[in-house]
Amino acid sequence: MATSIINRSTPHAVALETTLLVHGVPKDAARPLAAELDSIITAHGARPATVGVVGGRGVVGLNSEELSLLLEAPAVPKANTGNLGLLLRSGSHAATTVSATMELAAGAGVRVFATGGIGGVHKNYGARWDVSADLAALTRFPVAVVASGVKNLLDVVATREMLETLGVPVIGFGSDRFPAFYRRESEAGVDGRFDDPDELAAFLDAELARTGRGVLVCNPIPAEDEIPQGRWDEWLLQAETRASESGATGRAVTPAVLSALHQISDGATLRANLALVRSNAALAARLAARIPPRTP
Ligand code: PSU
Ligand code: MN
Known about the structure:
Elements: E1 5-7, E2 13-16, H1 19-24, H2 27-43, E3 47-54, E4 57-60, H3 64-72, E5 78-79, H4 84-90, E6 94-96, H5 98-107, E7 112-114, H6 125-128, H7 133-137, E8 144-147, H8 156-166, E9 170-173, E10 192-194, H9 197-211, E11 215-218, H10 229-245, H11 253-264, H12 268-290
Parallel strand pairs: 1-4, 2-3, 2-7, 5-6, 7-8, 8-11, 9-10, 9-11
Antiparallel strand pairs: 3-4, 3-6
Helix pairs in contact: 2-12, 9-12, 10-11
């Protein structure tokens, strides 16, 4: 059977995921965000490669028609490493999470990937073991993921502990703390800190080749876009209640809480989310521009 992967990536590519666009932000914010990320990445000397599944084909470097298909289709499934193969086989469209994006990007030789936050350990994990496949994906695929840590609708400290358990290198860019998405810092730390993109790019180039595994690069939200802690606690409580009343379970929980938060905060969490994604795309592009193309 012919390969079901289309690789349109170029040297110095930065992978982008489609779950963020399809399920993480409101529909009318998705297309402008995609366009902005493309221009930010290009302006910093790299090339965007948006990843998704279109008609059962994994695509690294979606064109605008393909992205439109994913943004306009009524119910696009969310692919992680577990259901990716089944979705490819079924000929479906799918939005790729961090884990599935890493798998497809690694297969295409793309080594840098920008997103907002990765999935992690949910607060109720003791009872349900709801732990994102993103964490294990970092142990499998040689891709540097640039993110602002995890949202504190997850258990931030437990997520950091799980990364430690899995032996994933966690790097702070310009910070010694593990960030909590809307907040620059959490109680947890990182394995090491870099302040210079040249040095970080050289480390990533060597580390990805040395281990064949991933690295998490933590880029805190820009200071001016941080959300004050007090308001956050109140908003989160309300959003969690709304999401659980809506009956969301499993993969639907994160999108349900996110959309409730965006409504309750009158768009403040969305604005912060967009700001940190842009900042992560810029850092990822600066790193990708400094990583030499892989010699086969
Ligand atoms: N974190 C965000 N926004 C998102 C996601 C995470 O702030 O949209 C998405 C990413 O695609 C991530 C996925 O890979 O949610 C994790 O989902 P799950 O918890 O079902 O593994
Ligand atoms: Mn989950």
